[in-house]
Structures are given as structure tokens and as C-alpha cells.
Amino acid sequence: MKFRRAWQIFFLLVFVGYMFIWVMLPTKTYKNSWTPKLNEKLNSTYFREQGTNLLLFSFPLMLIAALGCVYLHLQKKSNSESSKSYYRFLRRPAMVMAPLGIVNAVELTFAAMFIALLIWSLANYLYVSFGHLHMHTADEKVWEAKFRSVFLRLGYIGNTCWAFLFFPVTRGSSILPLVGLTSESSIKYHIWLGHVSTVLFAAHSIGFVIYWWAMTDQMYLMLQWSSTYLSNVAGVIAFVLSLGMWATSFDRVRRKLFEVFFYTHHLYILYIFFYMLHVGVAYLCMILPGIFLFLIDRYLRFLQSRRRTRLVSARLLPNGSMELTFAKNPELSYNPTSTLFVHIPSICKLQWHPFTITSSSNLETDKLSVVIKSQGSWTQKLYKQLSSSLDHLEVSTEGPYGPASSHFLSREALVMISGGSGITPFISIIREIILGSTESNGKVPKVLLITAFKNTADVTMLDLLLPLSGTPLDISKLQLQIEAYITQEHESPLENAKKQIETKLFKPNPSDSPISEALGKNSWLWLGAIISSSFVMFLILLGLVTRYHIYPMERRGENYHYSFKILWDMFLVCACVFIATSVIFLWQKRKLSAEGKQIQNVDLPTPTMSPSSWLSGSDRELESLPTQSLVQCTNVHFGARPDLKRILFDRKESDVGVLVCGPKSMRHEVAKICASGLAKNLYFESISFNW
Question: Which of 172, 196, 227, 380 has the most CB atoms less than 10 A away?
Fold first, then answer.
């Protein structure tokens, strides 16, 4: 515990120092004192104008990322969750409102600090720049110089947002778990930063259009590609691309036209290219850590996705949902509520979709299952294929991704509230609790599962609470109560009782492999090796190129094209990431291939459950003992909705974890109840996978 606390204090000190640098960046002290002294040592020969910013802005975050991998590896080995409990009160919802959604006290505090940083930076940038207006050209009026300075500095502030934009979408990040986040839970930060930065860049661009067109009559400067300074036309191209991505990223467009959003958002590759050409090498170093780590993660995901995954079986439910079960390397472990990205080339060669993992890596050591609800064009095509007579389906997977810990399992009681397919993350939690209840002296929380379904066919989702396995389970110690509400039916239709769950088994293919860690058993350590080696390689190669190629030309008085310097940075970053990641991945791939050949075929029994089993006791003699126990602890309510306020306030335990997954209105209602302060024993945690 002391060792872990020392690591946390170290990371906190480095981060505080890093943010202090951002606070000092727009001040005179940084410009007139720090920069000249550092430039004297760093910029003269090897790194030139990049040296100071590489040291101050790139190195600290890369250090945190590399050492964070070591910390997460040690935390995984210790398998302790107690360190998470001391700040759980800070996770209480502090604000529930559109469009921000549910915001807890920690998020609200950091958002306020970040906004304060932006305002502080803009104020100081303007203070410093206005103090140098005497240096403006004779044909430029003072008010015109001030106008240009304001909109130039708005671009600087947008660059501050960009420095943090890519961390939330780096799925295998070693930085997010350090603060208890996952890519899924922090995607909203990417959305917030994206909106703020685009607004700032739009103001920056429009301001300069007005300045060049209406004030100075220099519109030709928009198309200028200077050899000695920044490229204006690259900024114009980046701005046009950003407008296309921004217009299709709004919630309504993203939900109704997901494919338009999906393909348009991949313009980010071109956007980053032209954006870097516009901001220059000095400001490139400020956003470099986020892009560097994102490239490592993206390339690792690409390498992992090249494998074909063995699909063992599929369960087709009467309500159109599907459970896909894959073979898994027994050494692969993940926590409940994790997600897996699935790609099926026969449906679409480009799309990947995230789905909730319902299996427990500890209970089902050689299998991994996800649940998919048929509600869009992609999922409907998948359901149709699975309903046909095919005996093999080509599938690729990426992940799993999830929380670094399952701290909520240490609470005295859990109240899990779901709507429709929102029950899927709770299936993995219940399976994990089932395993804990079977262990000697296993202490598990009491569980109350509140589910709301539209019709009786949806109740078959409860059949997935138990794994499709021949291993006998003892759930006699499990304290579970299920309250199922069927909102749009007042009684059970007889035709639903005749519908059965269909189970399909697939033939193995020699080219398919079980799901495993992309970098093997010690994945965090290997990721740390990739981060550190690729960044050190980048610094060495950049220093050599600068010292022996760029510097000699400039010393002779020749002009080295400014954009070529940026292109060198881009090339070296990509090359170093490619080399370091490929070497370590291929080294680990040999070991994983040998282990995959040793994994035997997974045999699964065919269940005999029917939807009516949850509604009456007529078929219980056909069921296994665990299933009988689950049916007996289930109450089904027709034509009713759960009274969530009464249910939550009736909990008398001192430590009640409240998890909710479902429609936005349900999540917000539960969050408001927990945020009201009327029940001090409720600790809220929203689970949402809306991308």
C-alpha cells in the first residue's frame, strides 16, 4: 500500500509540474527568462527551436505514460482494489443537465480548472502581445494589430485543447487508468475538447479572413505556403476538414447517420497532417505526447485486428439479441463491464463495433462472450447470417478494453438498474460475483437487479446471467434478487412461451486463434518498453537529422524549408512507432501462436430454457439447479415501471453501489436521486457505451 501511494504521489507531482508549465507558457517569465536559458543549452545544435518544448511539454507526459505501465503491471499483480475506495465520495453526481450529462465533483473541478487555464492563457498572451505593439509595421494601425493579435492567440488556446484531445480515445492508454478512467467512460472528454477546440479554431480562422479581406486587402496570404515560416494554406485546408468532422459529430447526426459520422471522422488523418504543417515545430511539441501515444495504440490495434478469432458458438434469443462466444487464451484476464470490438468482413470490411463482454475471465477461463442486440443495419445483417445454415463465420476482434479494477465488488450491496439491452454489463458483474460466492470465505455484496423491458421476449436476456458451460455452479451463497418490469404488456402472451433460444455451434478453422493480449501476459511492461524505446529513438534520430542535415545548411546561410522540418518530425514519429511496436509485437506473436495451438476445442452444451421459465414454474423440472435458483429469486411485474426513488431509499446498508445502464432519461433520473444528498449511503456509477 505504501509503495502504491508513493507511485501516486510521484505521478501527481509530475502532473502538477506539467500543468505549472502550461500556466507559465503565456507569461513574460517563460518568454524572457526560461526560454533564452534553455535555448542556449538545447537549441544551439541538436534540436534548435524544438529543444525547449520537447523538454517541457513532451518529456513529462511520455515519462508518466512509460512509468504508468510499470505501475499498472504491479497493481495487476497485487490484485488489490482498496486504494480506490478513499475517493469514491468524489464520484457522486454534482450536476445532471444537458448537454453535459452526468458530471461528478472531480469532473466539475477539473473542467473549471481547465477553463480557468484557457482564460488565464488568453489574458496573458494578449497582455504580452499588446506590450509589443510598437513593433508592428508602419502601414498597420494599432487597432488592426490588436485585432490580429486576439485571433492569433485564440489559435494558441485551441492548441492547448488539442494537447489533451487524443488521450480519451487511446483505448490501451496507460494514463487513463492512473486516474480510474477507461476510454469508454472518458469519451465525453474527447467530445467536449473537440467542440471547444473547433469553436476556437473557427474563431481564429474567421478572424484572419476578416483581417486579410476587410482590413488589409491581403487575401492572397490565405494561399501562402511560406518557406521560412508557417503555411497558411495548410491551415485553411485543416479548417475545412475540421468543419466536416464537426458537422457530423453532433449527437443527432451521429445516432441517425452513424456511417456518415464514422467515415467522415476518419478525415482526422488528413486534418492532423495539415494542422501540423500550419502550427509549426514549436507548437507541435506541445501536442506531440497525445498523438505519439495514440499512434502506438492505433498501430497495436491494427496488428491485433489482423488475426482471425475463433467463434465457438452463438445463442439467438427470441427478442433478436445474440450472444457470441469466442475461444480465449486462459491467461487473458479482464474486469467486469469490459468491451470488445468486433469486425465481420462479410457484413462490412471497414466497420468495427464495440459490444459489452458478458463473460467472467475468472469463471470462464477459455471463453469470452459478448451480447449484441439487433437494432441497426449492421446487427440485423449479423442476426440474419447467424440464423442461416452457415457453419463458420470469419470474425476479427480487438480488445478487450475495460476498467483497471472492479472496486464496486468490494461494497456491501449493489443495486444495478438497467433498461433493455443495458443489462449486458451487469451480466459480467453477476458472473464474477457467482465465482466469488463459490470460493472459500468469499465475501460478495448483496445484489438487487432492477430490469425494465418492453415486452416478454426481452425477459430472455435473463437467461444469459448463467454461462453456457457444463461446469456445475453452486450459487446457494449468492444473495441475488431480480425485479423485472415489463412496461408495454399487462400479461404474458402465450405465443412467447413457445419460443426457444437457438444455440449454434461453429466448426473450428486452423487459421483462427483464441482471443489473447496483443502483447502477451505482461502486456503493460511491453507497452512501457514500446513507449520508452520509440520516444528515445525519436529523440536520437531527430537530434542526428538536425545536427548533421538541417543545422549545417542553416549555418551556411541557406534556407531550409520550414515545412520540411515538420515533415521530418512526422516521418520520424511514425517510423519510430512502427519499428518499436512491430519488433515487440512480432516477438510476442511467436509465443502467442505456440500457446494458441495448445488450446483444445471448447465444447458447449445445448440449453433447454424457454422464456416461460421466468414467468411460471411449469418447466422448472427441465432446468439445472442454478437456473431454478435464479428463477425463484425473480419477480416479474407486468404493465409497471420501477419506482426508483423508493427502491434506492429503502436500502439500509451503509455502502451501496448504484450502477445504471440504459436510456439517458433513466441514467439521469438515478443520478439525480443519488445527487440529492437524501441518502448518504448511495454511491453512483453510470455505465454508458454510447459512442
Answer: 172
- The whole-angstrom separation of Cα 687 and Cα 666 is 11
pTM of the entire structure?
0.84
Distance spanning both ends of the chain, measured CA to CA: 36
CA separation for the pair 329, 520 (Å, rounded)? 10
C-alpha cell at 686: 453510470
Rg of the chain over all Cα atoms, to the nearest angstrom: 28
pLDDT 10s digits, 77-120: 665 544 444 455 556 776 777 777 788 777 888 888 889 888 88
Query: How many beta carbons lie within 10 A of that of residue 459, not counting itself?
Result: 24
Q: What is the dihedral of CA 533, 538, 544, 547, to 10 degrees?
A: -140
d(CA 25, CA 47): 19
List b or e across 273-303, with b for residues whose CB sees 16 or more CB atoms inside 10 angstroms.
Answer: bbbbbbbbbebbbbbbbbbbbbbbbbbbbeb
Whether the Cβ atoms of residue 524 and residue 72 lie closer than 8 Å to each other: yes
* Partners of 483 in beta bridges: 450, 635
Calculate ∠ Cα 304-528-575, nearest 5°. Answer: 65
Instruction: State how beta strands 308-309 and 311-316 pair.
Output: unpaired
Q: How large is the average pLDDT for residues 305-331?
A: 87
CB–CB of 424/430 below 8 Å? no
Q: At residue 521, what is the residue type?
A: K
375: pLDDT strictly greater than 60: yes
Task: Find the length of the chain.
Answer: 691
Name 56's Cβ contacts closer than 8 Å, sequence gap at least 6. Answer: 21, 38
Among residues 159, 158, 148, 178, the alpha carbon closest in space to that of 64 is found at 178
Q: What is the pLDDT of residues 662-680, one digit of tens each?
A: 888 888 888 888 888 787 7
Rounded to whole angstroms, the Cα distance separating 661 from 402 reads 15
Residues 6 or more apart in contact with residue 70 via CB below 8 angstroms:
524, 525, 528
Distance CA(651)–CA(542), nearest Å, equals: 61
Cell digits of residue 685: 456509477
**DSSP tag of 689:** -
| Alpha carbon distances (Å) from 229 to 168, 226, 234, 542 | 32, 5, 12, 20
Q: What is the DSSP string of 248-276?
A: T-SHHHHHHSHHHHHHHHTTHHHHHHHHH
Q: What percent of the chain has pLDDT over 90?
A: 14
What is the tens place of the pLDDT at every residue in 23-71? 766 665 656 555 565 555 555 444 556 777 788 888 888 998 998 888 8
DSSP per-residue string spanning 590-627: HHHHHHHHHPPPPP-PPP---GGGGT-STTGGGS-HHH
Among residues 238, 229, 227, which one has the least CA distance to residue 274?
A: 238
- H/E segment holding residue 419: strand 413-419
239, pLDDT greater than 90:
yes
> HEC states along 190-242?
HHHHHHHHHHHHHHHHHHHHHHHHHHCCCHHHHHCECCCCCEHHHHHHHHHHH
Three-state SS for 673? helix
CA distance 330 to 46: 48
